[in-house]
Amino acid sequence: MEQTLTHSNLRSPDIHGTVAEFETVADLKAAANAARKNGYVEMDAYSPFPIHGLTEAMGWKNNVVPWIVALSGITGTITGISLEYYTAVIDYPMNVGGKPIFTLPMFFVPMFEFTVLFSAFGAFFGMWALNGLPRYHHPIFSTPHFERATCDRFFLCIEAKDPKYDSDEVAAFLSKLNPLNVSEVEEPEL
Amino acid sequence: MAVQEQLPREILIGGEQNYGSVNQIIDKVILNNGLHRKWFYITLLLGVMGTGLMLVSIGWLLYMGIGIWGNQIPVGWAWDIVNFVWWIGIGHAGTLISAILLLLRQQWRNSINRFAEAMTIFAVMCAGMYPLLHTGRPWVDYWLFPYPNILGLWPQYRSPLFWDVCAVSTYFTVSLLFWYMGLVPDMASLRDRATNKFAKYGYAIACLGWRGSAKHWHRYEQANLLLAGFATPLVLSVHSTVSFDFAMSVVPGWNPTIFPPYFVAGAVYGGFAMVLNFAIPIRKAYKLEDLITMKHIDWMCKIMLATSLIVFYGYAMEVFFGWYSGSKGEIDLTVYRMVGEYKLEYWMLIFCNCVAPQTMWFPKLRQNLWVVWIVAAIAGLGMWLERFVIIPMCLQINPLPAIDRPYHPTIWDIALFTGTIGFFTMLMMLFVRALPTINIFEVKDLLYKTIRSEGKSEIIKPATAVGVE
Q: Can you give the CATH number for the domain in which B220 is found?
């Protein structure tokens, strides 16, 4: 579908963004850097493997996962020790060979395992939740050749929600960055 | 932290590869049906038969009770615990490769980690079965966990047996999460490559709609690294805890302080041996030589050698502790091991774990896949014998000689053990068939890093056309 909108205020709401396809990591990184310098903020890149420095190039920062893991780890430690304390000290104290009722060295292993288990849950589920996955569909999948984003192609999408987004300008801008092709991607019809 | 040194590409990735050809090499094993030859189906069939044997053994055990095993007081722990410890040890190589080597930034791990992680999961499944069945009434195994119950009872936290419950169940859960997380981007890749409709739908659902977004990769890597950070102390804690089952008791031969590190080293030794036993034939059968290179095999052999020296030290220390203790029970046990009824097993153990791996000192022999495979198989046997020598042997000799009683396994002990080997083989074969045996995205990442460090262009024409066969 040809889109010939010239003014950002008139942009059609069913556009997801403009996507450029690149052949190499170097091109993608250069493009992300150029887009950030050009003032675009709402963009995303798609690649078959993690590329270090790409999110910095896009000007995007997010360090929530480590905090989630730290909090779940602490929760795990507290859960482990309080479970042991309540059950073995308060609810049913039992004298085993004259040893103290509360013995941290003996209570350490379950506490440690609780910490690890909770942190792992935090890392795993927290990461998927922040990423918004599982997700049934995403407009980016209708980009031409996008099946190669999991193989050997690199994509940069400047999204329509960007305040500076203008279909023609973005397409012209991306075309200068040595892409294999540039295409406009629509939101799927509901 | 290890020194971050970029190894030349040809050491870790053979041939002229580009991102696409890496995909082709790994995908073809799953997407090209014709690649699976007769040996695949024969091994799978053997695995299925073994699984059948396992199910029959479990069924008979549930019907009759654990009296069908050779366990008899004073030998209350025998093959069931031997096999539990053996299997869980095998699993540890997977976590070692995937977590510890990730933290140490050992890039060579990238093509063997998936494989080893799968091994971990399946080995822990086989391992976990044993203590659950050993309780005698597996239908009330939930009693192992702390939950409010009508009896008002709680688990005993001072017991290493409860630590074991925590450690093994946490280990299985964390390994499964780690493995699945690693599979998600690769399953997305298979979703985009698959032509078969069912395969496509299956991978599409399993990969959770992964689209390779840079933002997702960023969080993904953070989570992955953190999981690896937790898995590392976890794996060390699991086998230490397993060794506490013995070391915290006062049974002669069970309480040397060297047990935790020596158990961990033994686990790594046996685990790497199992990785080699499976990786060598699969590498050959599916032509993965470009990704699992001779360098990988060489390094795994060296790890086997190093850990075998640690366990050798452990055996020497056991003898020393026995003598130094001055206790009659300890000395009797040490002598009984060497000259008693099971002396053959003891000396075989010394041969398998201390003598045979010495061949790995020679680079020529490390390059000979037959020698490596045989030494690895011997190592697997040796580790089993080690647990046999430790567990039932120690219980036969007691501080009170009147209760000494020899132990003999029954046909059901052997059947269940053979069955779990079959079950493991079946799961490994199904894994090779259905999921990428090599981590696709990590190999590409490695390829990119080596290309960048050499300052070459990423646009490479593969030297040989691969995949289309």
A: 1.20.1630.10
